Amino acid sequence: MADSLQTVMDYAVAVARKAGEVVQTALAGDRKVMTKSSAVDLVTQTDQKVEKLIIQSVKEKFPTHRFIGEESVAAGEACELTNEPTWIIDPIDGTTNFVHSFPFVAVSIGFSVNKQVEVGVVYSCLEDKMFTARRGRGAFCNGEPLQVSEQTDVHQSIIATEFGSNRDPEVVDKIFCSMKNVLKLPVHGVRSAGTAAINMCLVASGCVEAYYEIGMHVWDIAAGSLIVSEAGGLVLDVDGGQVDLMSRRVLAANNRSIAEKIVKEIVLFRPPRDDALDHKQ
Ligand SMILES: O=P(O)(O)OC[C@@]1(O)O[C@H](CO)[C@@H](O)[C@@H]1O
Ligand SMILES: [Mg+2]
Ligand SMILES: [Mg+2]
């Protein structure tokens, strides 16, 4: 598999770039907005078109590989991570940004074997930044090596998190309570890019010390998780334990010292797992 992983990586980069071109072109036109799990969980025809383009391209080259794609799952496909080679795809991470032309929009493609992410590609389309990682081979942005921040003092840190798309008052309260706790540590700042994939690339780039979220999905974080760990960071559950990509909980941090401080501030809850949730709306 070693050499074929490089073939997978090269192909994922090429497909992500092609997908990014479609996203950029679509930004110039009208975007018809539809909703999924809630009134603020948005999807457009471009999300669906880009996902089809990625899956069709990959199937031509790797006909036996499996897929977990955000929009295919929304249309009723199983969201099941097996040991088989699997492409984990978010065609547009940051659809709300895309709809509003808020300039952080990513194509995220992870590739897993034996349930472990081996290749991660996040293309931040509008910044034209191609983030890549292969397990054991480092993380890169446009070919330049990435390294997480060396900061060990949480008070000198920026922490990224997201508000998510669940507007259940109890969930919103928990999300805000965690943010308030983190802000009051104090930290230099709390930020939301509006895309989990780009938040993780910001950790990998050393711009923010940590990103945490409860409620995102496997396609939001599969690629980014490898990019963070290959840049020297840690990817954990929000309770500080081992991450489970299907559990919809993640904490990506530059080092253990920062991670431990953030873990203490997060109000924990468990959304339905990706492999247990009925995604079809
Ligand atoms: O729907 P999309 O645009 O692919 O995902 C975007 C997003 O809202 O999903 C997660 C919350 O569920 C967030 O991390 C991320 O910002
Ligand atoms: Mg997403
Ligand atoms: Mg998406």
TrEMBL record:
Could you tell me the Gene Ontology terms of the biological process aspect for this record?
inositol biosynthetic process; phosphatidylinositol phosphate biosynthetic process; signal transduction
Citing just one GO molecular function, the answer is: metal ion binding
| Catalysed transformations (reactions) | alpha-D-galactose 1-phosphate + H2O = D-galactose + phosphate; 1D-myo-inositol 2-phosphate + H2O = myo-inositol + phosphate; beta-D-fructose 1-phosphate + H2O = D-fructose + phosphate; 1D-myo-inositol 5-phosphate + H2O = myo-inositol + phosphate
**E.C. code:** 3.1.3.25
What cofactor requirement does the entry state? Mg(2+)
Compartmental location: Cytoplasm
Q: Which PROSITE patterns match?
A: IMP_1 (PS00629), IMP_2 (PS00630)
Q: Which residues bind Mg(2+) 1?
A: 70, 92
Is Magnesium a UniProt keyword of this protein? yes
Entry keywords, A to Z: Cytoplasm, Hydrolase, Lithium, Magnesium, Metal-binding
Quaternary structure per UniProt? Answer: Homodimer.
**Official protein name in the record:** Inositol-1-monophosphatase
- Native source organism of the sequence: Nothobranchius furzeri
Recall the taxonomic lineage recorded for the source organism: Eukaryota, Metazoa, Chordata, Craniata, Vertebrata
